[in-house]
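Morning!

This is the sequence you dropped in the shared folder:
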Amino acid sequence: MTDATKTPDPTAAPRAAAWPWPEALDALQAAPLHHRLLLENERVRVLDTRISPGDTVPVHTHRWPAVHHISHWSDFVRRDAEGRVLVDTRGRPPPASLPLIVWSEALPPHTLENVGPPELRGLSIEIKDAPAPGIAAQGKSGNMQLR
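The structure's back. Tokens below.
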């Protein structure tokens, strides 16, 4: 759309919703030892995430909703930026089989601690052109989320 007389292009990608957190908290910037970029274009970003046993990923965000392909499972604790526990997988049964495929909305500032003995590893396919991305509610754990 170039002026007020034209109608919007229905094939154009939707505008990204305002993201309230600084770019410095993006997973690739705030936690580069745990997130590696595999692919990025205007529609998706693919991250390889690896968390060694006992490691805690520094506070970071994920701006876009994502599909996660978890290839290596380990129990984890996800906390918000203030340290409140949001998800603790200990006490839950492990996945029946791997890979585990899960959906996640965009995630506000959080940490993730690998509290199990094996490495926690997965691919995140972030959907950059998803309409009006939501933000996962703090404290909700309906979807198991690798973040």
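Headline: The radius of gyration is 17 Å.

More detail when I'm at my desk.
O.
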